Structure formats: structure tokens, C-alpha cells
Amino acid sequence: MFAAGGGTMDWGLQGKVAFVTGGGSGIARAVAMALGEAGIAVGVADMRLPSAESVAAEIESNGGKALAVEVNVTNSDQVNDAVARVEAGLGPIDYLANVAGFAKFVPFLEITDEAWHDLIHVHLNGAFFSSRAVLPGMISRGFGGIVTVSSLHAQIGQPRAVHYSAAKAGLMGFTRGLAKEVAGNGIRVNAVAPGPIDTPGWRSGMVTGGNMEEIMEGRSQVIPMGRMGAPEEIADVFMYLFSPSSSYVTGQIISINGGEVMY
Ligand SMILES: NC(=O)c1ccc[n+]([C@@H]2O[C@H](COP(=O)([O-])OP(=O)(O)OC[C@H]3O[C@@H](n4cnc5c(N)ncnc54)[C@H](O)[C@@H]3O)[C@@H](O)[C@H]2O)c1
């Protein structure tokens, strides 16, 4: 049903090191696999260690280099420790993919303090803690790339996911502010805003009940390209944003949504 992404082109990034949050599943797993195929050593960081370990093993069985680390990105001590372990095991981190996160659908007046806090914390604090942990090394070496996952929901607004829409919109301001601050240090900071992507997270968290094929079919009807996206199609844009092919691109939010919104 999905177009194949994840081409095998040579991005010229061999020998670099990346840290991928949420790397055990979905979009981040596809990013980690693409980085591994491109010859980049990958720190696969996830709160679910067995998932991170299985992705790291898959990268290694394809001939790549990877290290799985357990981390909850909402805890800055754990993030600092995970970054230190990846740098000790694989070398200085050149690229950061801020992907860890989840969505929840709840009517606005039923969003509890805790649910609001959890959503804001995983997306905004997660990207903040991870970026703050890798940036000193990047600044000292005068080189780095950061790509963060925002969302279509931040662009068009999502009823019953106001906390998610707010957190993902916050990441757009985060990206633009940080991009300007570190542009003079040889570090580029960008974000992607995906539409619906078929991942374990989308299937389990973003839909409730009903026949999955019918739900996906219904969702696809409002997408000009007539289908949901595949995680590899997001990973391809990450690779472009990390690569020298995008050497003059920073502070941008790249929409990847089959044409659902065109900005
Ligand atoms: N799938 C989509 O349609 C879609 C669209 C737009 C944006 N996004 C965003 O992309 C990201 C990945 O989504 P996905 O669909 O691949 O989900 P997924 O559930 O398949 O994968 C998310 C991974 O993040 C990990 N994770 C969650 N919270 C964490 C935390 N606190 N610390 C460390 N790891 C944590 C999970 O264990 C999981 O392995 C999320 O930020 C999501 O909001 C997804």
C-alpha cells in the first residue's frame, strides 16, 4: 500500500555518529536504520530497552554500527548519561534526531494536569534536554545537525489533542530559535512536520477501536496523494536534512504529508 522510501543513495556521511531518541519504533526506528545504512554509527535511545536493542542488532546485522541505550527523555540526568554512554561507545555525536514521543486523543475539558504535563514534557522537554546534552560537543567541534519531529497537527490544529498540537507547535519555535542561535557554530537545526504515518504508535495511540484498514482508508481520503505515509519516507527527509545536500537549510519546518497542507 505504501510507496517505498529509504533509498540506498550515498549521503557521504560515513564515520559520523548519531543519537536517535525513540529509536526502538516507528519513525525513529526508520531514521536509525537509514543512518546505519549510510555508515553512521547510531545511538538507539529509547525508554523501552528491548526495542532499542533489537533495532541496534538489526543495524549491526546489516553491517552497520549501533549501541542501544535506555533513556526516558523527560529525565535530564538520564539523557545526559545516555549521551555520555553513546559518546564513550561510538564517538562524539554529530547528529541528533529528536523523535521520542506519543499522542493522546482527549476532549479538551478532560485533559488533566498530569496528561497536559506528560505531553508537553515528552515533546518539549525531551527535545530540550537532548539538544542541550549534545550541543556543547557540537559547538566545540564547529559541526552538527539536529532534526526534530513536529506534526501536521501543529499546523492545522487537532481537536481532542490540544495538548499534542501545542507541544508540537512549541517545537517549531524551538527549532527556529535554536537554529538562529547556533547557525554561526556550523550547526543546522531543522524539523519535519509529518501527516499520518503508519507506525505502531499511530495504530495503537492515535486511533480507538474499529477496523484498522477502514480507519486508514478513511484517513487517506482527505490526503491529496490518497494514502498515509511510511516511516521510511520521513527517514529520507531526515537524511537529506543531515546531509551536505541541505547545507544552506536551517530553521526550516519541512511538511511531509502527501499534500494535506501545502506550507
Ligand atoms: N505516526 C504519525 O502519524 C506521526 C505524525 C506526526 C508526528 N509523529 C511524531 O513522531 C514521533 C514518533 O512517533 P511514532 O508514530 O513513530 O511512534 P511509536 O510509538 O511507533 O515510536 C515512538 C518511540 O518513542 C519511544 N518513547 C516514547 N516516549 C519516550 C520517552 N519519554 N523517552 C524515550 N523514548 C520514548 C517509544 O518507546 C517508542 O519506541 C512522535 O514524536 C510523534 O508524535 C508521528
Task: Based on the model shown, name its key terms.
single chain, 263 residues, alpha/beta, Rossmann fold, seven-stranded parallel β-sheet, 9 helices, 46% helix, globular, binds nicotinamide-adenine-dinucleotide
For the record, the CATH class is: Alpha Beta
Number of strands: 7
Number of domains: 1
Can you list the ligands bound to this structure? nicotinamide-adenine-dinucleotide
Taking the alpha carbons of the first and last residues, their distance comes to 26 Å
Question: Looking at CATH, which topology would you report?
Answer: Rossmann fold
- Which structural class should the secondary elements be placed in? alpha/beta
What value does the average pLDDT take? 95
Order of neighbouring strands in the sheet with most strands = 3-2-1-4-5-6-7
Number of helices: 9
Q: N-to-C SSE series?
A: EHEHEHEHEHHEHHHE
Report the C-alpha radius of gyration, rounded.
17 Å
The shape, in one word, is globular
Helix residue percentage:
40-55%
Q: Report the CATH architecture.
A: 3-Layer(aba) Sandwich
Low-pLDDT parts are none
Strand content: 5-15%
CATH superfamily: NAD(P)-binding Rossmann-like Domain
Sheet with most strands: 7 strands, parallel
